[in-house]
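Lay summary. Proteins are chains of building blocks that fold into shapes, and those shapes determine what they do. In this project we predict the shape from the chain. Here is one chain we studied, written as its sequence of building blocks.
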Amino acid sequence: VPHDPAVDIRKAMAVRAERRKQEIAAQNEREEEERQGSMRRAQAKLQQLEARRQQREQEQAQAVERQQMEAAAVAPRTTPAWRGASTADGSRADLGTWRRADEPRREETGRPRR
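And here is the predicted shape, written in a compact code that computers can read:
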């Protein structure tokens, strides 16, 4: 049987085309995986940033709350005398006894308030 070189060439070209098709498919798959991976990485980074933001907000809220608690702890327990509450020595002060600091008491002057 005489050997036809054209058959060999066609066969070689078919093999080459098939190999090239497989290479392209593999390349496409690799690129797709890389795309998916970068998407996942971006998603993870976004979630991480969001979690950090929430934690920071929570810490700020806790700090504000702590400051309010500390302020409440050092605030005087009694209401001011001019509100008609009990004064430091335990006596009741009615609204009429309120006076300016530089003004003498009524008993000291012997006359009604101006």
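What the prediction tells us: Residues 1-75 form one domain.
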